[in-house]
Specification:
mainly alpha; Fumarate Reductase Cytochrome B subunit; 9 helices; disordered N terminus
Length: 222
């Protein structure tokens, strides 16, 4: 009995020593809390719906004679269908965006992650990125280019929502429409805000493939 008990203790100690050597995933630092991940993916869904349906709406009354979005990359198939998709995603984008911005400010995440932004650091990190020497070892720390892009896309999101509201309700929200220079000018503001967001998403998705652990962190938080 004593021999079996001693053997059991030895096996327990050996297992403990091996388990302590294994990396503990749960002990890894949390990069993105739950609210960041949930709002991120909801924003992504809303943006893709709004962009696709927005292209279909644009084709019904284009701003530029040389620019047309093929139907197979647009959403809604026709104007009325596109409007239904657009308005449905609009509410998701607005409500989710408000939650994201409020929590980002209240928790101090925006201040910690996005500030300060120094022009010298942006230029230095941009040159390093072009040379392929910009490191991504610590995903919890954003480089200067990331800070500028993330802050920029937040501002573009605010502009696209406000300009969209001024286009949707130009009479009821006449002061907001006037702020953008009138209905026609608001359409141009809305379009270029969309274009800036599409440019950001293109870079964002490309980097997710280049640095796949960033995608894993946005799914699992670590």
């Amino acid at each position: 009995m004593r021999r079996c008990f001693a053997k059991s203790l030895g096996m327990t100690a050996e297992i403990a020593s091996h388990s302590s050597a294994l990396p503990d995933a749960a002990a890894a630092p949390l990069i993105h809390p739950t609210w960041v991940r949930v709002t991120h993916w909801l924003n992504a869904l809303a943006m893709f719906i709004m962009i696709g349906s927005g292209w279909q709406i644009y084709d019904a009354s284009p701003l530029f004679s040389f620019l047309y979005f093929p139907r197979h990359i647009a959403l809604g198939e026709w104007l009325a269908g596109a409007l239904l998709w657009h308005f449905a995603a609009m509410w998701l984008l607005m409500l989710n965006g408000v939650v994201y911005v409020v929590l980002g400010i209240a928790t101090g995440r925006f201040r910690r992650k996005l500030l300060p932004i120094r022009p010298h650091d942006v230029v230095k990190d941009f040159i390093a990125a072009l040379r392929g020497k910009l490191g991504h070892d610590d995903l919890a720390v954003y480089n200067a280019v990331q800070r500028l892009l993330y802050l920029g896309v937040i501002l573009a999101g605010i502009v696209i929502v406000l300009s969209g509201l001024s286009i949707w309700k130009p009479v009821q929200l006449k002061y907001l429409t006037a702020f953008f220079g009138g209905y026609d000018t608001a359409r141009y503001v809305h379009f270029f805000a969309m274009a800036s967001i599409v440019a950001f998403l293109t870079i964002h998705i490309a980097l997710a493939f280049i640095v796949p652990k960033s995608l894993r962190a946005m799914i699992f938080g670590r």
